[in-house]
Write a structure and sequence with these properties.
By secondary structure, this protein is an alpha/beta fold. The protein is 49% helix and 14% strand. The strands form two sheets. Strands 1-2-3-4-6-9 form a six-stranded mixed sheet, sandwiched between helices. A three-stranded mixed sheet has the order 5-7-8. α1 runs parallel beside α3. The protein starts with 5 loop residues before the first strand and ends in a 5-residue tail after the last helix.
Length: 284
């Protein structure tokens, strides 16, 4: 299929999927989740492919959802409905995005995610669906919208690092660099930025030498343990909560602020550490 938000390149035994909206730091558009799913399916259908490398073009892996579209524009946009809010419309849309991101998790071919620059908000959702993350030491990962206007719908944080470390990330909205991400267990390796390509290639070539059926069996066995722990149920409640965050008094105030002054200033205020009820005049 023709892709508009990414590129797909078979390269011997490796399929290379590269998010390709560099002018927006590969921010997620309406089309990107479906194109990720299609590219993963293409790699799985190709008998020559043993492993997938997922990366981002330009200065970052992925800066999350494109807030120029989803936050700055006025009117009834996809992620903020005019009131009264219909939660099931939200669940249908964000549930679809989550299922499309989770095509990475479901892929029978292992997926290595190469993280440079930023993997934040929805970008971290994509990254954490991968089997292995390899990060540049100066890369940054986290989910700042847990402060206002978001809940990670893939819910992969707790499954990747456990309850306490997931709370450390999601109760603060902090970003951590590659070194701390490795210490937390978010990535398998953090290396200097100029060594990132070589590190990812080393992991990819190591897996590419294994039979496809062996790779598939090992991944299915490990993933099934997490499915048995209730991953699908956790994702459903996370998707409902994500919709609530965008239609709470604080979420609506953030959306209005983004419309009034632009998303960059609204995000700066959200992440400042100030008491947002006082900053934005919300009765909380």
């Amino acid at each position: 299929m023709p892709y508009t938000t990414l590129t797909y390149e078979p390269d011997g035994r490796i399929a290379r999927i590269t998010l390709n909206r560099p002018e927006r730091l590969n921010a997620i558009s309406m089309e990107m989740p479906g194109e990720i799913e299609a590219a993963v399916e293409a790699a799985n259908a190709d008998p020559k492919i043993h492993v997938i490398v997922l990366s981002g073009a330009g200065r970052a892996f992925c800066a999350g959802y494109d807030l120029v579209y989803f936050a700055e524009q006025t009117g009834d946009k996809a992620l903020t409905q005019e009131m009264p809010w219909d939660p099931m419309k939200d669940v249908a849309l964000m549930g679809r995005f989550t299922r499309q991101f989770m095509s990475i998790w479901r892929s029978h071919k292992p997926v290595i995610c190469k993280v440079h620059g930023h993997a934040v908000a929805g970008g971290s959702d994509i990254a954490l669906c991968s089997d292995l993350l390899v990060m540049a030491e100066d890369a940054r990962i986290g989910y700042p919208p847990t402060r206002v206007w978001g809940c990670p719908t893939t819910a992969m944080w707790v499954y990747r690092v456990g309850a306490e470390k997931a709370k450390r990330m999601l109760l603060t909205g902090d970003l951590v660099d590659g070194k701390e991400a490795q210490a937390l267990g978010l990535c398998i390796e953090a290396v200097p930025a100029d060594e990132l390509d070589a590190a990812v290639e080393r992991w990819a070539q190591r897996m590419a030498g294994m039979p496809k059926n062996q790779l598939m069996m090992q991944k299915l066995m490990i993933n099934q343990a997490y499915e048995n722990m209730g991953l699908a149920n956790t994702q459903l409640i996370a998707t409902v909560f994500d919709g609530i965050t965008r239609h709470s008094p604080e979420g609506l105030a953030f959306k209005q602020r983004a419309e009034d002054v632009g998303f960059k200033q609204a995000v700066k205020e959200r992440d400042s550490g100030e008491y947002l009820d006082e900053l934005w005049g919300i009765d909380n």
